[in-house]
Amino acid sequence: xxxxxxxxxxxxxxxxxxxxxxxxxxxxxxxxxxxxxxxxxxxxxxxxxxxxxxxxxxxxxxxxxxxxxxxxxxxxxxxxxxxxxxxxxxxxxxxxxxxxxxxxxxxxxxxxxxxxxxxxxxxxxxxxxxxxxxxxxxxxxxxxxxxxxxxxxxxxxxxx
Length: 160
Description:
- The protein is mostly helical.
- The chain has helices at about 1-5, 5-40, 45-75, 80-115, 120-160.
- Helix content is about 90%, strand content about 0%.
- The chain is elongated.
C-alpha cells in the first residue's frame, strides 16, 4: 500500500520526461539553426546553443532520476535518512545549474526578439531559468527541513 501513496508522483515524474524528449528531438536542433542564421559571422553559435541546451536536458534527467529515487526512499520508509538529504541536494544543484545554463542561452532569445521585433520572446526565455530557480530554492528548503528533522530524530533516539 505504501507504493500506491507515491504512484501518482512517480507517474508525474515519468510524464515530465516525455516533453523533454520531444524538446530534444524537435526544438533544440531548430533553435540552434535559427541562432546560426541570426549570427552568420559566429559560425559556432549553433554548436554552443546545442551544447548548452543538451547539457541542461541531461542535467534535467539526472534531477528527475533523483526525484524518482527519493520517491522510492519514501516508499521504503527511509524518507528521513541521509540519502534523502543527498538526493535533495543533487536536485537543488541540478535545478541551479539548469537555471545558469539557460541564462547563458538567453542572448539568443534577445536576438530572436530583435530580429522579429517581438519583445515577449525574452520573457519566454526567462521562464525556464526562473522555474528552475524556484525548484532549486524549494529543494534547498526541503533539504534543510529534512536535515533538521533527522537531527531531531537522532536526538530523541539518544534521549530514550
